[in-house]
Amino acid sequence: MLQKISNLMNRQTKEDGHIPLENIPQHVAIIMDGNGRWAKQRGLPRVAGHREGMKSVREVTRAADELGVKVLTLYAFSTENWKRPKDEVDYLMKLPQDYINLELEELIEKNVQIRLIGTEEGLPKHTLEALKIAREKTQENTGLILNFALNYGSRAEIVQSVKDIATKVKTGELEVKDIDESLVQTHLLTNGLTDPDLLIRTKEIRLSNFMLWQLAYTELYFSDVYWPEFSRDHFLKAILEYQRRVRRYGSV
Length: 252
Ligand code: FPP
Known about the structure:
Elements lengths: L1 H8 L17 E5 L3 H7 L4 H22 L3 E8 L7 H24 L3 E5 L7 H14 L6 E8 L1 H17 L10 H6 L11 E5 L16 E5 L8 H13 L8
Parallel strand pairs: 1-2, 1-5, 2-4, 3-4, 5-6
Helix pairs in contact: 2-3, 3-4, 4-5
The site of farnesyl diphosphate has 19 residues, from α2, α3, β2 and α4.
């Protein structure tokens, strides 16, 4: 571990120097975008971009782990992505399996815990099964939490939390006066995780129904690089930029 940290501290990023380790974002969330365009630019089918994007997932996960990031949330499939052509959806639904086959051994060795946010409803059985195995095999791990947002939509998540709270009020388990921000927070899918400190999105400048509640005070970083080209150096550059920001949370 110490060797890993010292390697990173000594690392010259393409930007300007070293990553100070005292101000590492605890939770980094990433909207991985531009896979399709990356493929199209090369005359390849869109799914080739998703396949290549798995390499960036590997690089960024390794870098986050080495830096001591606690939670890395990756937006892998939104509730809106079902609108894509069936072939592409089928391919995307196979990716978690392929990813787990390729990466699980290393993730276990690195003490990474795999989690999932999103709704299981609608996901194919084989996707759910692969994710179940990954979660079970890593549930006792205490290192980086690798949190996949799959079949996730933030508004649906908020609606579900409102319904759950309303039901509890109706049954007398809660009173209206008990409802505050922290209660809502505990009814979201991210219950138990801190809000993201840093959101990275490649190729687009919008939130696309991602963690709308949780991003209230998150630092936003937009990269003009297609996700399949987003490397360790791009990730380190984003962390350096985060470290330059002054977070005021509404204060002066
Ligand atoms: C957005 O690019 C990307 C996705 C919808 C899928 C993200 C999936 C990966 C990066 C693969 C890794 C997944 C796992 C589960 C390890 P886009 O298709 O919207 O690109 P475009 O905007 O250029 O069309």
